[in-house]
Amino acid sequence: MRWLAGVCFGLSLYGQLTPEQKQLNTASFEKVWTTIRDKHWEKNPGGLDWQAVHEEFRPRIDRAETMDQARGVMRDMLGRLGQTHFSIFPAAVYQYAGLESGGEGSAGLDVRVIDAQAVVTRVDPGSPAERAGVQPGWRVVSAGGKDLAPVIEKLSADPAIHELQLERAVMALLSGPVGGVLHAIFDRGGDRDLALALDLAPPRGQSARFGNLPPMHVWFESRRIGEVRYIAFNMFLDLVRVMASFGDAVSGCKPCDGLIVDLRGNPGGIGGMAMGMAGWLVDKADQRLGTMYLRDATLNFVINPRPEVFTGPVAILVDGSSASTSEIFAGGLQDLRRARVFGARTAAAALPSIIERLPNGDGFQYAAADYVSESGRRLEGAGVTPDVEVKLTRQALLAGHDPVLDAALEWIRSQKKWK
Amino acid sequence: MEMTRRSALIGLLGCLAARAADDALPKAETILDRYVEVTGGRTAYQKRKSEVASGTLEFAAQGLRGTLTRYSAEPDKTYSAMELDGVGRIESGTGGGVAWEKSALLGPRLKSGEEKSQAFRLDAFNAPILWRKLYTKAETAGVEPIGGEACYKVVLTPAEGTHATTMYFQKTSGLLVKTTLVAVNQMGEIPVESSVSDYKGFEGVLIPTKLTERAGGQEFTITLQSIRSNVEIPADRFEPPAEIQALLNKAK
User: Fold this and answer.
1) I want to staple A218 with a disulfide (CB 3.0 to 4.6 A). Which of A79, A179, A238, B246 is the partner?
2) Is the dihedral of CA A97, A101, A102, A104 positive or negative?
3) Which residues of B touch A213 (CB under 8 A)?
4) Where are the alpha helices (DSSP H) in chain B?
5) Which residues neighbour A36 within 8 Å (Cβ) at sequence distance 6 or greater?
6) What is the overall mean pLDDT for chain A?
7) Tens of pLDDT along A373-411?
8) For residue B138, how many C-alpha atoms fall within 13 Å in the half-sphere facing its CB?
């Protein structure tokens, strides 16, 4: 399949542009420049004379003879900002990886890219995947007839594609319309590969709406692991239900040794929910998770201690797909030394960034706000580095272990011993 | 050369015209008192002892909609409840020296400092006839067009707090059409622009029934469908909820 990647590159490298394509590139350039002018959180984006930047780069886009050259001009212009989350995705990436395909239907699998392989990390209870016997640690060899290895290889090679986007692209290939079937081949780690036809069911959780966003399925899980309360949820959405469930779970932890909040794979959502949840864990007034800078306002992410606060040990689990509100929550509580963070570095995508399609078909990602965590560190582009870095391995998953969760449990138990 | 001389003349005339306009500006107290008169007069305001208002709330760009009910009574008692789709119930209130808020998102909290004084000022019952008490200084700062109508710009210095409030009154009608202020809350200081319109008469007083507020790059509109004055409001309506009471007890 490697030849296909070569073809995709070849098309963009050597294709001469038609007058129409040149016109679309010019329109794309203007859209990128205007968006930064109007929506960047600084009036002078990056401290630059943005009009002068336009005058410098505009002749270059007019001279661009290939898509790569045009894309390079726009990337160079965005590079002048010296800030992350401003990038251009080639249209070929969308077409090749199927970033826009998929659907709501899910077989009930959660997958991470571990050592360049798509590995099952969780199987939803009661899902078609569980009924078919799929296990954590299995490698997804192909989905819908498409080999995943070359997809992962191609996307990993693009510096504009981060781990979060890579895993979303892989998950898109495992989804489809509800009622459809996912034909997938799994490497079970020793046994012969297994081909399965998995029904695509509505995703786990309840459908929740928030304004103009499309309905999304949100699930919340709370259970005891020995004397420790474990909480996980897939998104900071469905505000009323999730906030109440979080409050109930924390209140239910009063006689327990510690609390684990698992944000692995959680892409974020409503930023304010991080403040609200922190209020159940921080008993000191006037504490902040961090500060968000918009063009005409500065917003402090202040924590309101709830009337009853959990004061025992708190562990937060994160990985490369923990983004946005997850990073605000984990980074802020880490800064306040209120929680110990376990797992892998987060997505480094704390800002409310937006991806739009440009007239020439490319994708344009930009951020409309800046966010600085309470210790003064900029999470955007850097992410939250765990206090205890734990690598998730396929071998551990195949053996039925979750090394990140195990490390958090061990730490909480050590706190009890120490006390 | 001729062009330069003409430009200079136009500029000079412009300056003179502006100066003449400044000289003609009415005093702020005249504009503020006129607002009371054109909306019904002091006596009509003084007859109002309580009010219950209800309507809808919409963040159009975000597609969020909700309802709003607001109870208020002399001198400074308020209780508001908003139900916003996807966000849940947001309650707030003032009275007895306490300003508070409670939401599904942030839980219960007590307002303090400038946020508290701003809440009492903005929620004051019959605020138009109380401006001399709520503000220590009022100055007419000029004339600006809003929606094609010339408006007097009045800058008010609050009796408590540091941020001035600017109000814009139509020259012709005397009605308030816009207010700008810096809203203070625990998240920070956010410039807010509020436009009001659709004045309707309720018990002899004209009250704007539409308010559009812009802040932090977002905009929402409140449309009041019902305003009832001097209705019986249960005494416990203005009592803070149990969670707020718990915070008050904790703070003692």
Assistant:
1) A238
2) positive
3) 63
4) 2-23, 28-38, 42-47, 113-122, 131-134, 242-251
5) A45, A50, A78, A81, A86, A366
6) 88
7) 988 888 877 889 999 999 999 999 999 999 999 999 999
8) 19
Let me know: does A346 contact A332? Beta carbons within 8 Å.
Answer: no
Torsion over CA: B45, B49, B54, B60 (sign): positive
Quote ipTM for the complex. 0.82
Angstroms from A247 CA to nearest CA on chain B: 10
Other residues' Cβ atoms within 10 Å of the Cβ of residue A255: 8
pTM to 2 decimals? 0.83
Distance CA B111, CA A273 (A): 19
Confidence of residue B12 (pLDDT cuts 50, 70, 90): very low
Q: Which two tokens stand for residue A245?
A: 């469930």
pLDDT digits (tens, 9 = 90+) for B81-138: 999 998 999 999 999 999 999 999 999 999 999 999 999 999 899 999 999 999 999 9
d(CA A308, CA A310): 7
pLDDT digits (tens, 9 = 90+) for A18-45: 889 999 999 999 999 999 998 888 889 9
In this complex, the residue of A209, A276, A299 whose CB is nearest that of residue B107 is: A276
How high is the pLDDT of residue A95?
54
According to the model, what pLDDT value does residue A92 have?
62
Chain B residue nearest residue A294, CA to CA: B216
Q: Assess whether the previous peptide bond of B128 is cis (omega < 30° from 0).
A: no
* Chain-chain contact of B191 with A296 (C-beta, under 8 angstroms): yes
Tokens of A66: 């290939």
Hey, is the C-beta of A299 within 8 angstroms of any chain B C-beta?
Answer: yes
Q: How many helices (H) and strands (E) does chain B have?
A: 6, 13
Q: What is the C-alpha separation between A396 and A399, in angstroms, rounded? A: 5
Q: CB atoms < 10 A from the CB of A400, how many?
A: 9
Type of residue numbered A353: S
Interface mutation target, options B105, B182, B193, B244, chain A, most CBs of A under 10 Å = B105
How close A369 comes to chain B (CA, Å)? 11
Q: Is A272 on the interface with B (CB under 8 A)?
A: yes
H or E element that contains B189: strand B188-202
N- to C-terminal Cα distance for chain A? 57
Closest CA to A348 of A322, A375, A374: A322
Contacts of B5 (CB under 8 A, 6+ apart): none
The sign of the CA dihedral A312, A402, A243, A325 is positive
**B134: closest CA among B145, B142, B126?**
B126
Pairing of strands B165-170, B149-158: antiparallel
Residue B25 phi, psi (nearest 5): -65, 135
Nearest in space to A72 (alpha carbons), one of A60, A84, A85, A54: A60
Token pair of A296, please?
Answer: 């005409």
Q: Which amino acid does the sequence have at B127?
A: A
Coil, helix or strand for B69?
Answer: strand
Report the SS3 class of residue A350: coil
CA atoms within 13 Å, Cβ hemisphere of B203: 17
- Whether the CA torsion A4, A5, A11, A14 is positive or negative: it is negative
Residues 109-168 of chain B whose Cβ lies under 8 A from any Cβ of chain A? 109
Q: How many angstroms away from the CA of B181 is the closest CA of chain A?
A: 13
